[in-house]
Fold this sequence. Notes:
The complex is a heterodimer of chains A (about 325) and B (about 400). Chain A is mostly helical and about 325 residues long. Chain A contains twelve helices and no strands. Chain A is globular and about 70 Å long. Chain B has helices spanning about 5-15, 20-55, 60-65, 75-105, 115-130, 135-145, 225-230, 260-285, 285-295, 300-330, 330-340, 355-365, 370-400; strands at about 165-175, 185-190, 205, 210-215, 215, 235, 240-255. Chain B folds into three domains: about 5-55; about 60-150 and about 255-400, MetI-like (MetI-like fold, Orthogonal Bundle); about 165-255, no CATH class. In chain B, strand 1 (about 165-175) and strand 2 form a beta hairpin. Chain B is about 55% helix and about 10% strand. Chain B is extended, with a radius of gyration of 31 Å. The chains are: A mainly alpha (about 325), B mainly alpha (about 400). Chains A and B meet through helix 1, helix 3, helix 4, helix 5 and helix 6 of A and helix 2, helix 4, helix 5, helix 6 and helix 8 of B.
Amino acid sequence: MATITVDPTNMSDQPNPAKAYTPRSLQSLYAREWVVKLLLACCGFLSLIVTGSIIYVLVKETLVFFSKPGVSLSDFTTSTEWTPSLGNEVHYGIWALISGTILVSFIAMMIALPIGLITAIYLSEYAPSRIRAVLKPVLEILAGIPTVVYGFFALTVITPSLKFLHPEFNVYNGMSAGIAVGILCLPIVTSLAEDALRAVPRALREGAFGLGSTKLDVTLKVVLPAALSGIISAFLLAISRAVGETMIVALASGSQPHLTFDPREATQTMTGWMVQMGSGDTSQFDARYYSMYAVACVLFVMTFLLTMVGNWVRGRFREAYE
Amino acid sequence: MKSLGNVLTEAFQKPNSIPRRMAKAVAFNWVCRITALCSVLVLGVLLYTVLSKGLSHLSWSFLTSSPHPDPNRAGIWPALMGTFWTCAACGILTLPIGIGTAIFLEELRPRNRLMRWLHSLVQLNIANLAGVPSVVYGIVGMAAFVSMFGLMERTVTEKQANHSIFEVGSRYFDQFLTIDDAVLMVPVESSFSEDTIPNDGIVAIDLNGKSVKMQVVAKGQPIPSSENEKAVAVRWNETPGRVHKQAWYHFSVPFGRSVLAGSLTLMLVILPVVIISSQEAFRSVPPSLREAALGMGATPWQAVWNVTLPAAVPGIMTGSILAMSRAVGEAAPIMMISGVVFITRAPSNLMSVFTVLSLQIYDWAGRHEAGFHAISAAAIIVLLLLLLVFNSIAIVIRQKFSRPLS
């Protein structure tokens, strides 16, 4: 049997001699490979460094905050008053800010979760392709609108409408900010929940139809439970987004941190306080300035937990149908 | 044929009867439709508000003039240029790192347990970074880039307090007023050198850029009469003002509240987004392409560079442009870096103080006068148009390159 030998250098009849095979040393090839891999690994580690420096900065500056006179950890964790600017009655009670955040996020979720989920169900189960072709881009546009625009919307449209309906509303109030944050979170819930619903295989639906279910039965009793893990993780992501939302609350919810769950009053969230300190004229050596880092620390832990739980739920309770 | 009334009465008489279930199903369908309409309605009201308030203020002079205490004369030029500078710098910084990380995670399969563990750690970390609120990135960016962790603070003298430790592309001058109110500029070493004392024969630069020799009019001495002498004559007790001229490549460390610090902070914000979307793009490249390249003897990097990366470019570009549009709209981290400041000049280099469009909108929207709300709406229109351009580019790329690869 004849062996076919191909000599790579003997290809002179190729049309483009410049592109002819040029032997390259394996060593240089391996060296290049190694350098490239090292660079790529550096890129990967950069994200770890980013996390590390976030934690480093937050912890370091928070410690500076707690070493300031008049600041104590017990006051921070138990007091319900946030009055850093009051001369002799200085309190740094994080609950005053947390209550603002909870109020705004709760209102936002009351809007975003039901509307988002039902829109997702409609898009995935009911909507004819013509309506889908309109609704999907609308949601994408809503998702792409900068948050400061929603803040403007809250201030110039939502608040006047609320005051028109019920004159007791303050110019700055938690309700208006909450509604705007809800609108912001709506497309997030919709797109993630729709992905989860669409991932449920057709066979399940067809099986349920075959047993005589109505479309409602199929949707609520078969598809929804099957997609539940994805939907819950979508909810958690939306909550974490609402908790961290900044520009809307900075514009629409006012700057009076106090423990209240009255949506008509002005309130202040954790992010709102950070913006007030970061944007303003506060001296960089003031305890108030460093309080921003302590608040950021709490916020970071909250969003971190929400993200972790969301990922865990999605992984742990995923129904695999393959 | 039963009437609707009949169906309904029957439905409520017999729970779980078929008509009742059908009625429920129909009702739910309508609930869905009406709810889905909400988002369209909200978008409509939002766009209507912004357009009705802002469209009348949109003009060429609005685009090209600076902020002003009078809303009718204010413009967005510095903010618009600030947005361009920060986003351009942010894109240049983010893309290579983001794509590199995506290649690291998707294409370089870990061989041993340590590497596998590292891969999953980085992956988990990126998922978490994507959930960190942008305002937290803002204050971290302030500590890391503006003051460089405070390691480089120098407070030896008052003048040195805010001075950089490394600097190129900047020249400092002491500015003197001459007898006839012209300006003479005497070059000095650095921003914290001692004030120049007026002296005969000091080489200075006049307004026309010519080198001249300064002449001092001592106490009690008559003021020179000729125009030429007046132009270089300075009173003995004149105190100079320190000014600086910066080249386009001006660079200094620490970065201060500069365009560069802002772009680096924005990079932190959008990096996870770029990484995750690039990973999706790599994942959607059919494995057969990669395997064919590897089978022909390509090294892993050759396979990535020549085969998978070109195939993934449309997806990467789409995701990156969408991430950039997020960077354009971000206001919170930029506010932490630059503060809400009144800036009348567009940035001229990476070290300039700056403001961005979204921050300008925030500033105007937060004021009480209706005039500022109107120009805020006009600025929102510009911002939304900018985003529209970004998204159209993404859509064009997606349409043009979305050909099946397998």
